[in-house]
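Q: Given only this backbone (197 positions), what sequence would you predict?
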């Protein structure tokens, strides 16, 4: 009678709060990208102000660098790169969250709180049209934060941790399998040179 083959553990279903939170974060990424690209005028004004505040005895190379920092192409390129890097980081965290990693849940919760606080602080400054996407991003981030703090999200991450541990244990070799290395296998018995039985 053969021993029963152990069945692989069943993968937990994706919790709906986690699924909705990651979908809300897609909206956050899009809204923050619009707000970031839309802040071109503000960034350019800041760079021009810094250039104009250079001391009169500043070196020529410093002045050329300050002029270069006010270049439209450089400002747009830096804004696009910052959007791409931020989106890549957020999407990576979202991927690990959907895979059930608790650290990703906590990190995305922290990012959600950061977006909400940032949108609140944006109202302290001058009114601009970029506050509209910031409000949208803050609303979605706040919803994602509430969903990620729910018990269902925590339970899903714990269940996935147990699932990964069980799957890893099933792939591990049985105890003692690594005690005898292939090069330690004893040589075959010597052949009888006489050929007699």
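A: Predicted residues:
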């Amino acid at each position: 009678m053969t021993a029963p083959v152990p069945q692989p553990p069943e993968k937990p279903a994706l919790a709906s709060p986690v699924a909705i939170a990651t979908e809300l974060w897609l909206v956050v990424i899009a809204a923050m990208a619009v707000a970031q690209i839309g802040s071109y005028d503000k960034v350019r004004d800041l760079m021009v102000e810094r250039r104009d505040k250079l001391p009169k005895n500043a070196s020529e190379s410093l002045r050329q660098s300050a002029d270069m920092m006010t270049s439209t192409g450089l400002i747009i390129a830096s804004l696009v790169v910052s959007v791409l890097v931020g989106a890549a980081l957020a999407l990576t965290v979202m991927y690990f969250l959907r895979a059930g990693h608790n650290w990703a849940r906590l990190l995305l919760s922290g990012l959600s709180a950061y977006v909400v606080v940032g949108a609140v602080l944006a109202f302290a400054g001058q009114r601009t049209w970029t506050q509209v996407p910031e409000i949208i991003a803050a609303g979605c981030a706040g919803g994602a934060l509430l969903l990620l703090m729910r018990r269902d999200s925590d339970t899903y991450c714990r269940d996935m941790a147990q699932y990964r541990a069980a799957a890893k244990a099933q792939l591990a070799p049985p105890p003692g399998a690594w005690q005898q290395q292939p090069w330690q296998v004893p040589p075959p018995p010597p052949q009888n040179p006489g050929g007699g039985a």
